[in-house]
Amino acid sequence: MIQRQAVQRWVDGDSWTARRGPQTPAEHSLTSQDPDGEDHARVIHSYAFRRLQGKTQVLGIFGAESGDFYRTRLTHSLEVAELGRAMLGQLQRRAAVQSADWAAVLPSRTLLANICLAHDLGHPPFGHAGERTLDAAMRGLGVPDLGGFEANGQTLRLLSHLEIGPEQGDYGLNLTRRALLGVLKYPVAYSAAVHSGARPPKCYLDTEQKVVDWILTPLSESGRAAFTALGGRERSFDCRLMELADDAAYGVYDLEDGVNLHLLERGAWDALAAHMPELSQVPQLPSWANLVFSADEAERKRGVAALSRALVTGIDVKWQGRFDEPLLDLWAAFTPAAAALQHFLTRLVWEQVIDTPQVRGPEAGACQQLLALFEAAQAEPLRWLGAESRRRLAGAEGAAERARVVCDYVAGMTDLFALRQAGRLG
């Protein structure tokens, strides 16, 4: 158990607010006295964040041809940030009532929002299907020590290397150490991760090993070993809150889109609920369903709000007693009732919306074009790459670095831009 005095010693330090590169001089920053505020500005003004508006959540359904009522990676990230802040508010109030010793470990609202806003920056065109395509394509090049592609790993690469921040040097956006730890969702290198099936392993890319080493510098040797020993299954507390908010947003808001676009009917909800006895812990579920599937738009919004509230308030926090670092030892999870609800919503969306011919067909066609574009760009990079990528290509050393530059460029494309570029293949 982490004791109150140990937590206070941790709070008084500044290791987690450090940056890899030099801090921007105050005259060049409006928020230089507020590290989290500074990071917030850096994230929302980044090119990668802007491009999220052109990356849809579910290709083929929630895209430009479906009208103007659909979610993108950008709106999803905004919703994750809002749910994360709401969860944090619940925990802050609970900590105040209980005089909890973990109160000092809670992130600021801005820090948690930054992690939530940044969590999907590495997603390539066409979501997870595009991720699988790029991973297989990179491995298929047969270049030694190249590795593949993984979206969470690409997020860290963007933040720490590819995006251009205000400082001179190769520091990316130069976020604080705690912010980068918050987006390090899988603390295992691609080369060391377990590979199974067609999906890329959950990991960080080997190109970011020095960055990860820097992030984990404040940890003790034993703490670092324990954190990285379980195949990437550990999380920092901040990352865990982001993950819970992401899970809630996926279940609730993709469900809302499915209902509003008439892709998900009440019968499917009732049929699945009947086969999940654990939902007896959520007695309000039938009344919420009445609202969610109502013909009245205001009632549907109340139903969505009720589902969101149940997940936001259904968070447990505890010390694990495994780490001497409070940011790692403190853990958050859904309560059993909230976990049952989240599992139900996620499964419903998967079965009725995502894993369907309406989505899989367009995904397959788009990824064929993505693969063709990737191969063309690898063969003739100067024909396809943008100016900044050509500059990086000129400075690349060896085949692996050159191939990674091309992959970075293709992965950064929006859905529509990738399709337009593929259309040039002739």
TrEMBL record:
Residues 13-38 are annotated as: Disordered. Keywords: Hydrolase. GO terms for molecular function: dGTPase activity. The keyword Hydrolase applies. InterPro entries: dGTPase, dGTPase-like, HD/PDEase_dom, HD_domain, PHydrolase_assoc_dom. CDD domains: HDc. Residues 73-251 form the HD domain. The keyword Hydrolase applies. PROSITE patterns: HD. One of its GO terms (biological process) is dGTP catabolic process. This is DNTP triphosphohydrolase. It comes from Deinococcus psychrotolerans. The gene is dgt.
